[in-house]
Design brief:
The N and C termini lie far apart (43 Å). By secondary structure, this protein is an alpha/beta fold. It is 46% helix and 13% strand. Helix 1 packs antiparallel against helix 3, helix 3 crosses helix 5 and helix 5 packs across helix 8. The chain has a single domain, classed as Rossmann fold. The longest helix has 41 residues. It has an eight-stranded mixed sheet with strand order 1-4-3-2-5-6-8-7, with helices on both faces. It is globular, with a radius of gyration of 21 Å. Bound molecules: S-adenosylmethionine.
């Protein structure tokens, strides 16, 4: 499989670095495809029968399953390897970025003179504790660390690393989530003609770009709390010829006027914010939407409907991948959150995402995505 698409902001990996990335990708594939099912066998044949003999009932929830599985050598080995592969993945991404960083910073500075889109940074925006307290999904430095003037390292590490993280399943531009969700928007709301679109928690804008193609008459905006991500995102969008207005802002409370947008989207954003923040973000979406406007959020699937074992398996990231808000997303009651934010119950749609026919789609652990949509 080829590496990520090489645009002018993508760090350039040499032969040995690419070989290392391919090794880690294959190791991760082996752990998921070949070894992870062994955990379930250990559960069904050893841990669960032991529990039933002692308690005269099966384990009730993912927490009871977890307690059992932590004592199983098969799971201990898999979990340790899984965590190690995660650290190896990001280490492999850091090397080319460290070497190319001065060049990438220069390119991003030059890119700012171009006129297609805009970049508005605001040093008053403080990254919230739920992303600043830990290096989320083990990415070194997390989303918001700035080590040098005009830093773009976090953006470059993310863009390069995500390709290998997902085994290439997001496509060479890492944009399949935006492609897929823009199709869902069209299917759900065929009459919607958005004048302004906002992507919240945009990171490096990979999911934002497809909206420029899907809605060519709309103005496309995107926000994130992290300046190094946004500098990279802006330069990347310019390099790929997309007009996007990037702004450093907290999605819990932005400066945009009431009713400014007709469409608000997010992609795998909500599982990285706290439960309180989700409530505030949905209220802010409601405020920002014009009457008739819609918000559509795509994220990891919910625990609802999973067996205790499946929910335990889908919760690995909470404990071992620095994803402190992962379980809050999977435990969400989307209808309650959206009505609490002011959306009327009849305009809310919650669906498990259909797998795209052809093209690329990445499955989160637990399988596929959930889509939460609401109309004002
Ligand atoms: C998993 S990433 C989202 C990925 C991205 N949407 C994509 O499709 O590639 C989560 C992003 O949300 C940003 N973020 C977290 N909390 C935020 C907030 N309250 N307001 C705006 N951005 C936030 C983080 O900085 C990070 O870039």
């Amino acid at each position: 499989m080829a590496g990520p698409f090489e645009h002018t902001m993508m760090p350039h990996a040499d032969h040995d670095e690419l070989a290392r990335c391919e090794f880690v990708r294959d190791l991760k594939g082996h752990l998921t495809r070949d070894l992870r099912p062994g955990n379930q066998l250990a559960y069904e044949r050893l841990a669960a029968p032991r529990f039933r003999r002692a308690n005269k009932r099966p384990p009730r929830d993912r927490h009871e399953v977890r307690k059992l599985m932590l004592a199983e050598p098969v799971y201990q080995t898999w979990a340790a390897l899984q965590r190690t592969s995660q650290e190896m993945l990001w280490d492999a991404a850091v090397d080319p970025v460290e070497r190319d960083l001065p060049v990438l910073i220069d390119r991003a500075r030059v890119g700012r003179g171009r006129k297609k889109g805009t970049l508005t940074l605001d040093s008053r925006v403080v990254p919230p504790r739920y992303i600043a307290a830990a290096d989320v999904h083990c990415m070194p430095g997390g989303y918001a660390t700035e080590r040098t003037e005009d830093d773009v390292a976090a953006g470059a590490i993310f863009d390069f690393g995500v390709h290998w993280y997902t085994g290439g399943k997001l496509g060479p531009y890492n944009d399949s989530m935006g492609q897929q969700l823009s199709v869902v928007v069209r299917q759900f709301y065929p009459k919607l003609k958005p004048r302004r679109i906002l992507d919240i928690g945009c990171t490096v804008g990979t999911s934002t770009l497809p909206y420029c193609r899907a809605f060519p008459d709309a103005e496309v905006h995107a926000i994130d709390v992290s300046a190094p991500l946004l500098r990279y995102a802006h330069a990347r969008a310019e390099a790929l010829g997309a007009a996007i207005h990037f702004r450093q802002a907290n999605a819990e409370a932005t400066d945009y006027p009431d009713g400014h947008f007709d469409l608000i989207v997010s992609h795998i954003f909500l599982h990285e914010v706290s439960r309180k923040a989700v409530t505030r973000i949905m209220k802010e979406c409601h405020r920002l939407l014009a009457p008739g406007g819609v918000c559509v959020h795509q994220d990891i699937t919910l625990f609802a409907g999973m067996t205790p074992y499946e929910a335990f398996d889908a919760d690995w990231d909470t404990y071992a991948n620095n994803e402190p808000c992962w379980a809050q997303m999977r435990s969400l009651d989307p209808k309650a959150v959206m009505t609490g934010a002011g959306f009327s119950a009849k305009g809310i749609r919650v669906t498990a995402a259909s797998r795209a026919k052809g093209g690329y789609i990445a499955a989160s652990s637990g399988g596929g995505w959930v889509t939460i949509a609401a109309q004002k």
